[in-house]
Amino acid sequence: MKNFQTPIDALDDLKKRGYDTDFETQSFCLYCGDLDMRLDPEDFHVDEVYRFNGDANPEGSSVIYAISSSTGVKGTLLNTYGGHSDNLDSEMKKKLQDHPAFTN
């Protein structure tokens, strides 16, 4: 995986590589408002994860997920550490946190 200085650098690179859809978390799924698409945990794969701590990111600590859907839609999810995790069901938490980036 690549190393980026800022979340904007990571998002720019991912968009160049086709991750051009913006996802947000809902309690049981990921949602894209532009496509009115909901992805249950079994409908997407976390391809890459980039973590940024407060020192490198003036907005605070954040995580960027590169997501691929089972239908071929690729996009990103920008999340703050713990920001939305309290609202996620256990299956969504597990799906987002099982990436090797969280075990290193």
Protein model, in words:
With 104 residues, the protein is α+β, with helices and mostly antiparallel strands. The chain has one domain (7-102). It is built from 2 helices and 6 strands. It has a 6-stranded mixed sheet, covered by helices on one side. The longest helix has 10 residues, at 7-16. 26% of the residues are buried.
Order of strands in the sheet with the most strands? Answer: 3-2-1-6-5-4
Q: Percentage of helical residues?
A: 10-25%
The helix/strand class is alpha+beta
Tally the structural domains. Answer: 1
Question: How many beta-strand elements?
Answer: 6
Rg from Cα: 13 Å
Give the overall form: globular
Low-confidence parts: none
β-sheet strand percentage: 25-35%
Major sheet: 6 strands, mixed
Termini gap: 13 Å
SSE sequence, one letter per element: HEEEEEEH
Average pLDDT, rounded to a whole number, is 85
- DSSP helical segment count: 2
Short description:
This protein has 104 residues and is α+β, with helices and mostly antiparallel strands. It has helices at residues 7-16, 90-97; strands spanning 21-25, 30-32, 37-39, 44-52, 62-69, 74-80.
List key phrases describing it.
six-stranded mixed beta sheet; 6 strands; alpha+beta; 104 residues
Question: What's the topology here?
Answer:
Elements: H1 7-16, E1 21-25, E2 30-32, E3 37-39, E4 44-52, E5 62-69, E6 74-80, H2 90-97
Parallel strand pairs: 1-6
Antiparallel strand pairs: 1-2, 2-3, 4-5, 5-6
